Amino acid sequence: MEQQGNHFDEKGNAIMVDVSKKEATLRIAKAEGHILMNETAYHVVESGTSKKGDVLGIARVAGIMAVKQTSSLIPLCHPLIIESTSIEFDLDLSKRCVRAVCTVQTTGKTGVEMEALCGVSVALLTIYDMCKALDRGMEICGVTLVEKQGGKSGHYRRKKEEQ
Q1: Catalytic residue at 129?
Q2: CATH domain 25-145 topology
Q3: Which of 9, 18, 92, 129 is catalytic?
Q4: Model pTM?
């Protein structure tokens, strides 16, 4: 059965895309997102003084774990061997915002965009979970694919005006 890169067969049934004929290439994806919070929560995150522990350290581990579990969470996502992943955080006091960036790399037949998006989302959700007693109105926003490399579709970089 020849696939056209979608998740449906000729009868409209959901299927996992057939990647068996694809060539394994280096695949890299980077995703980012932000969480906005009140001043109290921001200072607790920034200073590392949360009663629950090191918010950013725990969020980093949660994001990495999420990258490794993506195919268990997204129904038609291929399980991949992740060669490297990182979660980085930037803090912006003027906006009371924490920006998370997840980068994922593998050599394989399909990309790691979903893994990067999942990693950044769970890292931000973990920050929310650890700070919700200080600010239930936190807002997670701007979760997006920033860049991907590898595969037939080649290199993609989100334009600055889209960010």
Answers
A1: yes
A2: Alpha-Beta Plaits (3.30.70)
A3: 129
A4: 0.90
